[in-house]
Design goal:
Elements (H helix, E strand, L loop, with lengths): L20 H10 L13 H13 L15 E2 L8 E2 L4 E2 L16 E2 L2 H20 L1
Antiparallel strand pairs: 1-4, 2-3
Length: 130
């Protein structure tokens, strides 16, 4: 990134387009990197500290979402119809399920994301081994 985007300010462009800019700027702040610095100006220590914040940093969450409430999802494929080792349907071999299509109730956010990522990974492994 230092070579490809050397003239761009670190606060205006992050490597991970899925990270919201406010969160990106929090990572920069925690790494003690001025968002006005250009990528070419970052030292190896800066890069190391930013990498550490992205992979090991811990943060205190304050408040709720923008809407000041949480949402719940419900319903889906009954869990007793799914092989949890592969996420394959017990009723229809070759059909795999993951994420919120399953009957897993939870507050949306981290728990549902983790469930979606984990069951997606298991389903992909099951499909690859099929």
């Amino acid at each position: 990134m230092r070579e490809d985007q050397s003239r761009k300010k670190v606060g205006n462009q992050n490597w991970f387009i899925t990270i919201p800019s406010r969160l990106w700027n929090t990572f920069l702040e925690q790494a003690s990197i001025n968002p006005e610095k250009r990528w070419a100006e970052l030292s190896n220590r800066d890069i190391h500290e930013l990498t550490w914040q992205l992979t090991n940093g811990t943060y205190t969450i304050q408040g709720k979402t923008t809407y000041k409430e949480e949402f719940v999802t419900s319903g889906g494929i009954p869990l007793d119809e799914v092989n949890f080792g592969t996420m394959e349907s017990k009723k229809m071999p070759g059909l795999y399920f993951s994420g919120e299509v399953l009957d897993i109730d939870g507050i949306t956010g981290g728990y549902n994301f983790q469930s979606a990522w984990t069951t997606g990974w298991i389903a992909a492994q099951g499909i690859a081994d099929h």
